[in-house]
Hints:
The chain is an all-alpha fold. It is about 80% helix and about 0% strand. The chain is built from 17 helices and no strands. Helix 5 (about 70-90) runs antiparallel to helix 6, helix 8 runs antiparallel to helix 13 and helix 11 packs parallel to helix 16 (about 325-355). The longest helix has 30 residues, at about 130-160. The chain is globular and about 50 Å long. The mean pLDDT is about 85.
Amino acid sequence: MSRPALPATLWALLAGNFVIGTGVMVVPGTLNELSQSLQVGAAAAGQLITAGAIVMCLGAPLLAAWVAGWDRRRLLAFTMLWYAAGHLLATLMPNFGSLLLVRMLTVVAPAVFTAQAAACAGLLVPAEQRGRAVTFVFLGWSMASVLGLPIGALVGGHFGWRAAFGVIAALSVVSAAWIWRQLPTGIRPAALSRAAWGSVLRSPLLMGVVCVTALQGAGQFVLFSYFAPIVRESLGADATQMGLLWGWFGLCGLLGNMAVSRYIDRLGAARMVLVTTVLIALSLLLWPLAVSFATLALILVPWGLGCFATNSAQQARLVSLSPALAPGSVALNSSGIYVGQAVGAAAGGWLLAHDATAWMNWVGLVTVLLAIGLSMAVDRAQRRAPAFSA
């Protein structure tokens, strides 16, 4: 029996996430070029990831409350125009300090878009399709890893990081126009009251899921943030080879997210989170064996399959736990993603600066194992209280 098709409107939200994801990942993708152009070390350049992630972490819940009553068509289109302006302005910055400030302003857009697009997707479909709709929209991030990240790395490697940022600015304008054309007017989710926000923050299940997300992100970004300089140093990779590696990683990510989108409503979000997080842990465990491009490509497969898929499953998990609180819980989950990125990038930068890159995968592995343990504990708690709702 075939499942009913998802509304075509969701494609515009997916495309928006593609552009958002490409813009977020352009820094690790062009880290070598940023470091050389701005005459700072790779560890210092990586703090663009940390600072941006802090802004996105704090901004996601605060902005979710502020924009709660906005028409989602206007909100999401304006957010993409903000993203375009920020990336365009970044191309004009002469030094690292000014770029850092502009970057922090620019990433206000991801703080709004990803969470609000997920919550909006849940309102555009019947209840039984919510998990599928949310994971479908999140496919944009996987597509960003398949196409956006490697293209950004290639453009940056051959024409400079400013050209890569300019391409993202242009794509953001196109995305804004698509959203404006496709999204219906009048989508205004009810603003969460203080009591509702309190329900989110006091819920061990919802906050447990958010903490799992933060641990997943931190474990990955210890190494992921500095993938480009590490591979250049260890394997002598040039810009083209890095682009191919990013593309391979992204292709695995797309396949993983497609599998989750297809089977999540059948198998359950908690099981999907467990499977995808175990895949990430496997790659971190095997990382020391990456002594050639061939072995590195093989080791990246499980990580790619799990990396973006686990975020999709986490978003769907929160929506299924309490649809009414989804705008708040998904916003906090976005904060979890970004706080994980900030902590991971900061820890990885410290290890890189102290010539301890050999420890990166082990620090990441321990953190991801903590995420697995906490996720299993949350799942057990949910089974004991299946009637949870807010």
